[in-house]
Write a structure and sequence with these properties.
Catalyzes the ATP-dependent phosphorylation of thiamine-monophosphate (TMP) to form thiamine-pyrophosphate (TPP), the active form of vitamin B1. Belongs to the thiamine-monophosphate kinase family. It is an enzyme of class 2 (transferase). Its EC number is 2.7.4.16. The chain has 351 residues and is an alpha+beta fold. The chain contains ten helices and 13 strands. The protein has two domains: 146 residues, PurM-like, N-terminal domain (60s Ribosomal Protein L30, Chain: A, 2-Layer Sandwich); 170 residues, Phosphoribosyl-aminoimidazole Synthetase, Chain A, domain 2 (Alpha-Beta Complex), CATH 3.90.650.10. The strands form three sheets. The chain has a seven-stranded mixed beta sheet with strand order 8-10-7-11-9-12-13, with helices on both faces. α3 links the parallel β4 and β5. α1 packs parallel to α3 and α4 crosses α5. The two termini are 31 Å apart. The mean pLDDT is 94. Bound molecules: adenosine-5'-diphosphate, thiamine diphosphate and magnesium ion. Adenosine-5'-diphosphate (ADP) binds next to loops.
């Protein structure tokens, strides 16, 4: 990587902007029929036929969203794509194309960008999406990667944040809190390394949570699973900022309240163990940690039997009338704790 002095590194100036773009994007195949014009023209062209076009964009900034002290560039490229595909999955749509924009300082050699694009290519291949364009510019400060994701879906299948009704069940996929604890491990080992570069990082036993932080996946598989069960969620959102924040978004848009049961929140064993190691309440990691990229949705109570024993889904609460407000039902005591947490916020986190 960057520190590897044995390898000759190529300055970006050697290729120039156009040479760089060509070099980075030449090995991206077009696999979607809807992609009519891809990289190389003034704009890309998509043929959506009878489907609606679903579009979302998210930006990752060095120092705010990632720290290059411990995040490998290939993982960064992969994650930048995945977090955007997650937003398309949260609309119950299928992602088909992405655009990628990077602002990069000329302290980066071409090889660093190759690493980022290797991660992007991996994600494109894994999720069968086409890279159809983007923008490349220089930056005097940190690295910024912005991805726009496009998906196509039949209008009646698209699920928004605003359809939850009182008594609907609140359901989440997978398990939560892992990505936050993975980040705590990376931060801890990075500060140990900065204090003494000869110390070996202690990463053993943390594989699952490190993967949740460094190589998250988008739940594009859920759409098909729900279709097989003949369930169309009434509202849906992905868990990027933390469960509390996302529940409040559904509440806000759907004009309902929620009761969220702490004891029902799914967590992996390693998330619980690592929380204990850091003297943290694991439920707090799920509520405010973020970056789990699971899907949170509501379903009609009449659909309960269809999902009650499904390994991918956990019912964690239910919607109430809006006037009742949003509460966490505490483990054991059944005490109602107002759900006020706002989850992870890029502007609040910098104190
Ligand atoms: N700078 C901006 N200009 C216009 N719209 C924005 C901007 N930032 C966010 N949005 C819009 O606000 C909404 C919420 O954004 P955000 O909280 O980032 O959602 P998500 O967590 O799904 O990425 C989205 O519809 C998004 O497109
Ligand atoms: C250095 C560093 N700081 C903080 C985090 C944690 N973090 C980064 S992004 C994020 C949540 C999602 O980010 P946001 O920009 O809010 O995305 P959106 O909700 O728009 O999808 C979190 C919790 C991290 N992974 N690395
Ligand atoms: Mg966003």
């Amino acid at each position: 990587m960057l520190e590897d002095k044995s390898q000759e590194l190529t300055p970006i100036s050697k290729l120039g902007e156009f040479g760089l773009i060509k070099h980075l994007t030449e090995n991206f195949p077009v696999v979607q029929n809807s992609t009519k014009v891809s990289i190389g023209d003034d704009a890309a062209v998509i043929d959506s036929e009878n489907q609606k076009v679903v579009v979302s964009t998210d930006m990752l900034a060095e120092g705010v969203h990632f720290n290059l002290g411990y995040v490998p560039l290939k993982h960064l490229g992969y994650k930048a794509v995945v977090v955007n595909l997650s937003d398309i999955a949260a609309m119950n749509a299928t992602p088909t194309q992405i655009l990628v924009s990077v602002a990069v300082s000329n302290r980066f050699p071409v090889e660093a960008l190759e690493e980022i694009y290797a991660g992007i290519a991996l994600a494109c291949n894994r999720y069968k999406v086409d890279l159809i364009g983007g923008d490349t510019t220089s930056s005097n400060a940190g690295l910024v990667i912005s991805v726009t994701a496009i998906g196509l879906e039949n209008e009646e299948k698209i699920v928004k944040r605003n359809g939850a009704k009182p008594n609907d069940l609140l359901v989440v996929t997978g398990d939560l809190g892992g990505a936050y604890l993975g980040l705590q491990i990376l931060e801890r080992e990075h500060s140990v390394y900065l204090a003494n570069p000869n110390m070996q990082p202690e990463m053993e036993g943390y594989d699952y949570i490190l993967e949740r932080q460094l190589k998250p996946e988008a739940r594009t598989d859920i759409k098909k699973k729900l279709e097989e069960l003949d369930i169309l969620p009434t509202s849906m959102i992905d868990v990027s900022d933390g469960l509390a924040s996302e529940v409040l978004h559904l509440s806000d848009q759907s004009k309902v309240g929620f009761h969220l049961y702490e004891e029902k929140i799914p967590m992996d064993e390693s998330t619980i163990h690592t929380s204990e190691e850091f003297n943290l309440n694991p439920a707090m990691a799920t509520l405010n940690g973020g970056e789990d990229y699971e899907l949170l949705f509501t379903i009609s109570p009449s659909d309960f039997d269809k999902i009650k024993n499904h390994p991918d889904f956990t019912v964690i609460g239910h919607a109430t009338a809006e006037e009742q407000g949003n509460f966490l039902v505490a483990r054991g005591s059944n005490q109602l704790i107002p759900l006020t947490a706002q989850g992870w916020d890029a502007f609040l986190n910098k104190e």
